[in-house]
Design goal:
Distance between the termini: 33 Å
Order of helices and strands: HHHHHHHH
Structural class: mainly alpha
Helix content: 55-70%
Largest sheet: none
Number of helices: 8
Length: 235
């Protein structure tokens, strides 16, 4: 993609230019669960001027990233599991421990931290079993699908059933992340924040960015490829 226009979907934009994901994060433009919207629609919903956003994105230098766009579906499954699942498994535990420490020390002066902690608990409670379902059910099905010459007899009937379920869970995770962003004033620590407080908010910002990219790779690249392959085999 050499030019950016207001009609391109956010999902297609990030797939073509993965290095633009951080800029979209900064602008608050959801390219994973809301990736089907055009850049113009997303800007309108966020109260941004599309031409100004296009200018900002066009000024971003191209940064080399892992070339996951060119990966085969089988390679992408391995990539998502080894990179994003591994990160989430560690980060959710680490941030939960840090959250408890910050809430204990600063909760009296910053009552919003109680809700931040509650949302983080909900996010962890959702994502940990979600990762397990992908690793134990959906990903093995995708690996099997791309290793045969006819449609496998899946126990759930069609691959689209677990993919639909995962999509619903992705939407909930996206909503919880949006709530965290709002409660923390876009992860901006208060003036009296100690080192742990600052580390917590930086970690939550990183968690949001990684999870958005993770969901984008699944919702907008991996899952459509798997559904298309299942349909091809059924012909």
């Amino acid at each position: 993609m050499t030019t950016i226009d207001s009609t391109v979907s956010l999902a297609d934009l990030v797939t073509a230019r993965p290095d633009l994901a951080p800029a979209l994060e900064t602008l608050g433009l959801d390219y994973c669960c809301g990736g089907g919207r055009s850049l113009a629609e997303a800007c309108s919903a966020a109260g941004l001027e599309p031409d100004e956003v296009i200018g900002q994105l066009g000024d971003q230098p191209i940064v080399e990233t892992v070339d996951w766009v060119s990966m085969s579906p089988l390679e992408l499954v391995d990539h998502v599991e080894s990179v994003h699942h591994t990160y989430l498994t560690e980060a959710l535990v680490r941030l939960s421990t840090l959250m408890d420490r910050v809430l204990d020390v600063h909760g009296a002066n910053h009552p919003e931290l109680a809700e931040v902690a509650a949302v983080l608990r909900d996010l962890r409670a959702d994502l940990e079993p979600h990762l397990m379902k992908e690793e134990q059910i959906l990903f093995p099905m995708i690996r099997e699908l791309f290793g045969v010459d006819e449609t496998p007899a899946f126990h759930c009937g069609t691959l689209q059933n677990p993919i639909t379920a995962m999509g619903i869970e992705h939407d909930r995770a996206g909503a919880l992340l949006a709530r965290l962003r709002s409660l923390t004033s876009v992860y901006t620590p208060p003036r009296d924040a100690c080192g742990s407080y600052q580390a917590l908010y930086a970690g939550l910002a990183e968690l949001e960015a990684d999870t958005h990219l993770h969901i984008h790779k699944e919702n907008n690249v991996l899952f459509p490829a798997a559904v298309a392959e299942e349909m091809r085999l059924a012909e």
